[in-house]
Each structure stands twice: as structure tokens, then as C-alpha cells.
Q: What sequence folds into this?
């Protein structure tokens, strides 16, 4: 059974739930549900709370507006198509956006925009693998962290103020993100302490 480590990063948009293996970051989620399912699958053993300090510094830099790239190692697992899509997401420049059709063309499947959307939705490492930079042709598109968080991340990357100093684009999503995140975080920590999985 493979050992994994977890941690919670308190971001301006609410808690971010991280899971890493010995190779790199496996998950970064806005809610703990996916981590719970992962650990309950029986394929992984929780080995403790241990997220490297340099990863935290990279997230701090991103949310302050000074960090434009992540250097933390990743341990992404998915189908060959999903991995190709996630790699294409990582190639989207900071401050830029593209469409599902654009990603489909980049991975050599120009008619697979819908499948790209599905792979984008299953991205296990939000923000670091920037699925928020993919938009629909005539709308912002979906996002696991919520539309307001997506808009705030894009505003941050467009240079409209780091989230540590926040602009009006962030205020509402910060308030709602904090309350939603705290509710999930409180439930998650109670489950952690009461289960042998943790």
C-alpha cells in the first residue's frame, strides 16, 4: 500500500487540501471530499501531515501576485488522454486563457472539446495545473472551486492586485470561500481524528 501525506493550506479563497506521495503533489482540492474518497479506496495509507515548506512559499507567492510559476514536483495519475490535457493546461501562460477547443487542438484531438472539458473537470491539482485558465467559447466555463473563485484567480493573474492585499474582485469570493471552506474543514478534521485512516 502506497503512503501519502496530507496538509491544509489556508489560502485567501479558503482552505486548500493537499495530498502528496513520495514523488510529488497528487491532489490540490477546494474541498476534502476527493481526499476522503482516495484514502477510503484502500490503495493508500495516510502517513501523516507533511507538506514541504517550499510548496507553501510557492503558494504564498502565487496569491500575493509575485509568483507566476510553480516548481513543486507533481505526481499526476490518469488516462493517457487526461495526462495529455493536464500537460497542455500547464503550458497556458500566466495571465492568458484558452478554450476547450484550443486545448483539444493542442493535444491533437480537434473534435474532442467535450472530452477535454471532462478531463479538465477531473484535474486533480487545481491552480498548480491551471484549469481555471480554460474558458468556454461564450462564457467563463465551469470550475471546481466555484465561478467566483475562478474569476478571482483570473483577475489576480491579469494583474489586478495580489490576493494578500485584495482587490474588490476578491472580496465576495473570499468571504463566501472562507465560510464554505471552514464548514468543510471543520467536518474534515473531525473525521480525520476519529478514523484509523488518518
A:
Amino acid at each position: 500500500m502506497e503512503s501519502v501525506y496530507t496538509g491544509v493550506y489556508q489560502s485567501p479563497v479558503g482552505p486548500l487540501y493537499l495530498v502528496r506521495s513520495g514523488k510529488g503533489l497528487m491532489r490540490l482540492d477546494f474541498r476534502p471530499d476527493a481526499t476522503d474518497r482516495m484514502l477510503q479506496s484502500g490503495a493508500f495509507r495516510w502517513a501523516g501531515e507533511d507538506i514541504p515548506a517550499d510548496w507553501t512559499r510557492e503558494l504564498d507567492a502565487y496569491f500575493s501576485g509575485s509568483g507566476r510559476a510553480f516548481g513543486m514536483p507533481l505526481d499526476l495519475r490518469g488516462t493517457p488522454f487526461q495526462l495529455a490535457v493536464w500537460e497542455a493546461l500547464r503550458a497556458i501562460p500566466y495571465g492568458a486563457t484558452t478554450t476547450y477547443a484550443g486545448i483539444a487542438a493542442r493535444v491533437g484531438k480537434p473534435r474532442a472539446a467535450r472530452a477535454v472539458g471532462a478531463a479538465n473537470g477531473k484535474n486533480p491539482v487545481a491552480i498548480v495545473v491551471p484549469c481555471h485558465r480554460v474558458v468556454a467559447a461564450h462564457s467563463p466555463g465551469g470550475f471546481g472551486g466555484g465561478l467566483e473563485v475562478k474569476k478571482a484567480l483570473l483577475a489576480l493573474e491579469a494583474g489586478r492586485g495580489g490576493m494578500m492585499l485584495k482587490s474588490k474582485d476578491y472580496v465576495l469570493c473570499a468571504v463566501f470561500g472562507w465560510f464554505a471552506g471552514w464548514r468543510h474543514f471543520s467536518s474534515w478534521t473531525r473525521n480525520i481524528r476519529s478514523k484509523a485512516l488518518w
Notes: The two ends are 14 Å apart (CA to CA). DSSP finds seven helices and six strands in the chain. Residues 165-198 have pLDDT under 50 and may be disordered.
